[in-house]
Amino acid sequence: MGMNKRGRATRPTLAFDELGTGVALRVGRITTVATATALVVGLTGPVTAQASPGTAADSVEVIVQEAAGAGDLPERAVTALGGTVEEPLAIIGGFTATLPANRLAALRGAAGVISVTENAPVELLDAVPAEVQDQAGSMFRVTHEVTGATALWERGVDGKGVDVALLDSGVVPVEGLSGRDKVVYGPDLSFESQVCDEDGCEGSPQRNLDTYGHGTHLAGIIAGRDSNANPRTFRDPNTFAGVAPGSRIVSLKLADAIGATDVSQVIAGIDWVVQNRNRNGLNIRVLNLSFGTDGVQDYQLDPLTYAVEQAWHAGIVVVVAAGNGGFGTPKLNNPAYDPYVIAVGGADSRGTYDVQDDVVPAWSSTGDGTRNPDIVAPGASIVSLRSPGSYLDESYPNARQSERFFRGSGTSQAAAVVSGAAALLIQQRPDATPDQIKALLMGTAQRLPVADPIAQGDGIIDLRAARDAAAPQAVQSWPRATGLGTLEGARGTANLAYDGTPLEGELDVRGQAWDPAVWAAASAAQSTWTGGQLRKGTWTGGAWNGTDWFVADPGDGVNWNGRIWGGQTWSSLTWAGRIWGGRIWGGDAWTGRIWGGRIWGGNAWAGRIWGGATWSGADWA
Fold it and tell me: Are 202 and 342 in a shared domain?
């Protein structure tokens, strides 16, 4: 303790978060957080200061923030209203006080007072252990030393106002991804959205949540932000922040608890993002797709590449994982081989601070010499947020880092880093086109002297250089995709299977015939999804049980605008003569049967490397 200006002993100082709604207290390497809370620290540890009930006769403890130059007017106002001034809070320019509960409004209107916040109970937040932040793959190292994201943060650019659509396995609102400004849940198009309880499918317990563990990890890399972090404490090694901590995630859950999904589900999700990018307060400017197949039909025909091009030409920067080299071919994953999108490979720091000795690891797809990765980003042993109890969390316990974090490697993680970087540059340059953002990232990237010159593309992203670079006048003019190829060609060898029956040919995952011409025309017209503002939504004319739209808020879970997305099941649909529905999709089995006898209908996990055409991660240990 020190001495304050009134000669009394001072307690550790507190600081408001960026919204001015809460305070954070740092005590050594322990961080605590609350909404509008003061915490008293004694010799034996933290003790919560309980809030008063709020009757007129009661006194309450408050935090008062003063205007610059207010002098002692706020303190005098407290005294005049029957209150007592307590401790100064120099960091926020204010003080704590006790005050009759019925005098709060009067104090808020007093001269020199910016805000008056009543105290509430507080609970300890598991801090970011120093050993986690010191690791080469920590987000602290990635943002501060490798990518240079802090060069934009220090200019007030943190991604605020930019939404990043994450088409993945869902997001769990753990600390770092909780609160109304962090995650908006779009439709759940995964198989788990069909798991029903006694209240019907609308009560599916897995809806939107990341039972696989991949989506939460990526969301943390892109936009994670501890609730006690603000622009001043993004540099605090005791708080967690992603690359664009001010941006917001729009989560579409496509993959279930074992990472299973079909190309048709991914295409439907992309169509939804394009049509809803500016609706209901959204501003989706980036789409992260850490998914890929080994489909090799020409990109000008492929329906998946056509879908990502529709997003690109609608003003959305599409960031795609290049792939993890699991197909025995140097060709980039589909849709990363589409030349319009940003194809991202992984970089490995090898545990050093200097990027000059970084390499492109063997698992990062190199490309075929014609279409290669555009850039690389940190992707090896990245420490991000954990989804406790998820498939990956249970399968790879050695990848856990403290209670909150999880370590993973792959071009998925590298793509997430670039998605966050794109969000920063879009906030800085809101009128920039996707072509310009891509050219800016490529044109300012650092070449890696010892890395494979083909696999690294133009090099590793450098946001310090990108921040100060002139806006490029870039326009891509590749031949555009038509989408008239086959759905089966887009799948490649990644066919889902049930009881030995694969999903193959020109059928989507709902068992409906795929008409490429009809779908491509509707996708271009942004009309594949109908009923988006109504209770029931359909995609390409078929009902799809999705989800409520709502903003993540563990406190109330209020539906977004109270509108339901979907509302019908697939129970009447058949797939190759087999009925979908009436069976439970959950965990890693369907009525006790593993998919096709193995995971992903024959595409099994190869050691610790993500194989087949599943979500593009790699090493989870």
Answer: yes
Percent of the chain with pLDDT over 70: 71
Q: Looking at per-residue confidence, does 565 or 194 come out higher?
A: 194
168 assigned to active site: yes
DSSP letter string, 114-171? EEEEE----EEE----HHHHTSTTBHHHIIIIIS-THHHHTTT-S-TT-EEEEEES--
Considering the domain architecture, whether residues 110 and 160 belong to the same structural domain is answered as no
Domain residues for 60? Answer: 2-125
Q: Residue 92: how many CB atoms within 10 A of its CB?
A: 19
**Catalytic entry in 412, 419, 523, 616:** 412
Residue 100 and residue 151 in one domain: no
Which of 17, 158, 163, 168 is an active site residue? 168
**pLDDT of the residue at 230:** 76
Q: 126 catalytic, yes or no?
A: no
Torsional sign, CA 136, 142, 143, 146: positive
Written as six digits, the tokens of 121 are: 């109970």
Whether residue 546 contacts residue 564, with contact meaning beta carbons closer than 8 Å, is answered with: no
Question: Nearest CA to 410 among 296, 326, 299?
Answer: 326
> Phi/psi of residue 496, each to 5°?
-70, 155
Note the residue count of the chain.
621
Statement: residue 88 has pLDDT above 70: yes
155 CB contacts (<8 Å, ≥6 apart)?
428, 467
Alpha-carbon gap, residue 615 to 607, rounded angstroms: 15
**Is residue 374 flagged as an active site residue?**
no
CA angle 441, 446, 449 (to 5 degrees): 145
Question: pLDDT tens digits for 149-203?
Answer: 999 999 999 999 999 999 999 999 999 999 778 999 999 999 887 665 445 445 5
Among candidate residues 17, 158, 163, 214, the one labeled active-site is 214
Q: 7 lies in a domain?
A: yes
Quick one: 237 and 105 in the same domain? no
- What are 18's two structure tokens? 């960026």
Residue 105 has pLDDT above 80, yes or no: yes
End-of-domain residue from the set 447, 470, 486:
486
Whether 257 and 370 share a structural domain: yes
Domain boundary among 98, 125, 152: 125
Q: What is the pLDDT of residue 542?
A: 53
